[in-house]
Design goal:
Elements (H helix, E strand, L loop, with lengths): L2 H70 L13 E4 L10 E8 L2 E11 L7 E8 L5 E8 L51 H37 L2
Antiparallel strand pairs: 1-2, 2-3, 3-4, 4-5
The structure holds flavin mononucleotide (FMN).
Length: 238
């Protein structure tokens, strides 16, 4: 093979390699652009879904809360309008992330039960939100109902009344009839049952209930005054 032929072959090979490199680069750029576009569209879809469902989720939580509210204070146990006798407050001791509605049940003008929405954050998996009714006359528990949680089905979800009667074990208890050290699960020396293989969830709810009773004892008088003032303003504003 002549030198001239060799040089020509080398030139053609180099041109081929340059063409291959540039088509590889083009293909990488195209794929990257397609991937970037796909990720962008996915992000938009997720953001839109979140915006569209956020309100709905909030409404569902509110409905679940109202349903639980009427379980704790059935309609024949109060004669006032719970949707008027309430106050929106952001109480950090109750685990609130934003203002929540505290309801007051009355019979013939006398406060009977106050219902606090509470969130506990040291469960197994995210926030556990529940409401707790406290009898005004003796500061005992009228009832507790879990409104939302993400605990594991079959393990931590026994805090729901439809899964187990565990939540009813708090009925009638108070800081007067139950010692401070009893407000935890039996495994930690307290009086409340844990769940098989799941102690974190019931311990979190139990301790949070005791914290709520402490808050109640400290602030009930101020709260009753505040609710009465807010209610008067609502009535005079029509
Ligand atoms: C997949 C998985 C899910 C779990 N879910 C829960 C739960 O929802 N609630 C809970 O209390 N423990 C749950 N546990 C068990 C806890 O990790 C822990 O072992 C148990 O609560 C005992 O806690 P203790 O060591 O403080 O007694 C889960 C464990 C696994 C592996």
């Amino acid at each position: 093979m002549s030198d001239q032929q060799n040089t020509q072959d080398q030139t053609e090979a180099s041109e081929d390699s340059t063409a291959n490199n540039s088509s590889l680069l083009q293909s990488i750029m195209l794929n990257s652009a397609a991937l970037g576009g796909f990720a962008f569209i996915c992000t938009i879809i997720i953001a839109l879904t979140y915006i569209n469902t956020a309100d709905n989720i909030k409404q569902q939580k509110k409905l679940a809360q109202l349903k639980a509210l009427y379980q704790i204070v059935p309609k024949n146990f109060h004669d006032n309008d719970l949707l008027t006798d309430n106050i929106n407050l952001h109480v950090e001791q109750l685990g609130h992330r934003n203002a929540q509605t505290i309801y007051l049940a009355k019979q013939q003008g006398q406060p009977t039960v106050i219902v606090y929405p509470v969130t506990t954050t040291d469960g197994y998996s995210g926030d556990i939100s529940y409401i707790i009714g406290v009898n005004i006359d003796d500061n005992s528990i009228a009832g507790v109902r879990v409104v939302s949680h993400q605990e594991t089905p079959g393990l931590g979800d026994k805090i729901e009344l439809r899964k187990s009667p565990w939540i009813l074990s708090f009925n009638d208890l108070s800081l007067e009839n139950t010692q401070a050290e009893d407000w935890t699960v039996k495994k930690n020396g307290g009086r409340f049952d844990g769940f098989t293989g799941a102690t974190i969830t019931p311990r979190s709810v139990t301790r949070s209930i005791a914290r709520t009773l402490n808050y109640h004892q400290q602030f009930i008088d101020q709260l009753l005054k505040k609710i009465a003032t807010t209610n008067q303003k609502k009535v005079s504003n029509g």
